[in-house]
Amino acid sequence: MDFQVIYFSKKGNTKKIAEAIAFELGVRAEDIKNAKLDGNTLVFLGSGCYGGKPAKSMTQFIQDNSFTSRDVALFGTSGSGDGIEVNEMESVLRSKDARIKGRFFCKGKFLFANRGRPNDEDVDEAKKFAQLMRT
User: Fold this and answer.
1) Where does residue 33 rank: exposed (0-12), middle (13-18), buried (19+ CB within 10 A)?
2) Is 16 exposed, middle or buried (0-12, 13-18, 19+ CB in 10 A)?
3) 83 three-state secondary structure
4) Helix, strand or coil, per DSSP, at residue 107
5) Which CATH superfamily is domain 2-134 in?
6) Fewest Cβ atoms closer than 10 Å to its Cβ: which of 9, 29, 41, 42?
7) Model confidence pLDDT, tens digit, residues 77-132
8) Domain-wise residue ranges, the chain
9) How far is the C-alpha of 85 from the C-alpha of 76, rounded, in Å?
């Protein structure tokens, strides 16, 4: 199975998780600005949380591409670590008939909160998530 990791990150939190997932899968993480969906891949999509939603560019990327019967794994980072950005991406993708294979989210540094996050434990959990999605 081929894999693709596409992310949006403003402050580097989600990029750190994207790179950990990509490393584990033996691919490179792609910034959404330059990303194009490959053929029949399991695509990992990740975003930070901005005003309770994923980045506008991530939502636009999902809207602009066909996800019918495509396997997708979602990941995100936020100050709360609750995964609302992941929930929103999942909702939009389900409306486009994507098959959601899994979800991962963790805290990310936001202003003065969560300094040092995502931390080594978060990165390790992201790698475990990638391994789980591989099977």
Assistant:
1) exposed
2) buried
3) coil
4) strand
5) Flavodoxin domain (3.40.50.360)
6) 41
7) 998 878 999 999 999 999 999 999 999 999 888 877 788 899 999 999 999 999 99
8) 2-134
9) 7
